[in-house]
Amino acid sequence: MASIGLLSLPLSLVWAWRGFWPVLVYWALEMLALGMALRVSMGRRFESQSVRVTESQVSLVTRTRRGEARQVFARHWAKVRLVGARSAQSRSRLTIESRGRAIEIGSFLTEEDRRQLAARLRTVVGGMNESPPLEVNSTVGDPSR
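The structure corresponding to this sequence follows.
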């Protein structure tokens, strides 16, 4: 941010000196918007989710700056649902549901990644009243996310 500010400030000052003083106001607003976007982005670097599927349960661990939240579902009763986007501007929702509870996962993923994760989870978790056999050393998703 500092390098962008230092590179664009001299140009803004030249235009302000020539009488186009509103350029400095727009430069300041642009730097403020950039700073806020960087702050939000840097704050989200701590957010992650991991899904672990065992023979008996599906556990979801969500980590944020505020701490860690863990949800556990019985695998036999769990269901993976991908609800499509209602419009072109909205996004789909991927949830794991069981016994009246639903937890959204992968909200930070792209649409394509969310669809791939849903397909993989469906093969591992199965549907309600289904528990397909697990492969040895199978992982769901990228552990770095």
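The chain has two domains: 2-44, 47-125.
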